[in-house]
């Protein structure tokens, strides 16, 4: 009887260990897949490369018909106003390959504190859209109460203070800060 109980216990431990191992492998794989999906949604760069189109008017060059540009092998060019970088290279002896790199799609989340900035007159990749965020003000009290027993409750700023460009008047917290239910705690002098 005790032998069958021991066998059952060992089988249970073995099953628990196997399940734990599967969980250890599955979780990082799922986390990696989630990161990959988020990255693919947010950063979708445009890039293409393949055998070059040629034009008899420009022998020995890669011809980009969409832009009416011819490049010699080894040459790269950013196109102002288009935010794209074109390049031409010779592979396998005589075969010409053309590459085109652009910005692609951007999936920046909407925010009142951030904005998308683009300057298509700059060369690639500086012309690609980028997210620029305003600094969020951090409220630091002039005097802080010293205690290890009670949490410090700071007043919260109104929502408009998250974006200084919207509200011209800065939010000024009341001074000095107080702790709830502890009116007689000494305050530390300000530095």
From TrEMBL:
Q: Which residues form the Single domain?
A: 62-133
Q: What is the protein's major site of localization?
A: secreted
| Keyword Secreted in record | yes
Q: Which domain of life is it from?
A: Eukaryota
Keywords assigned: Secreted
Pfam families assigned: SVWC
Q: Which GO terms describe its cellular component?
A: extracellular region
Give the matching InterPro entries. Answer: SVWC_dom
State where the protein is found: Secreted
Could you tell me what this protein is called? Uncharacterized protein LOC108679379
Gene encoding the protein: LOC108679379
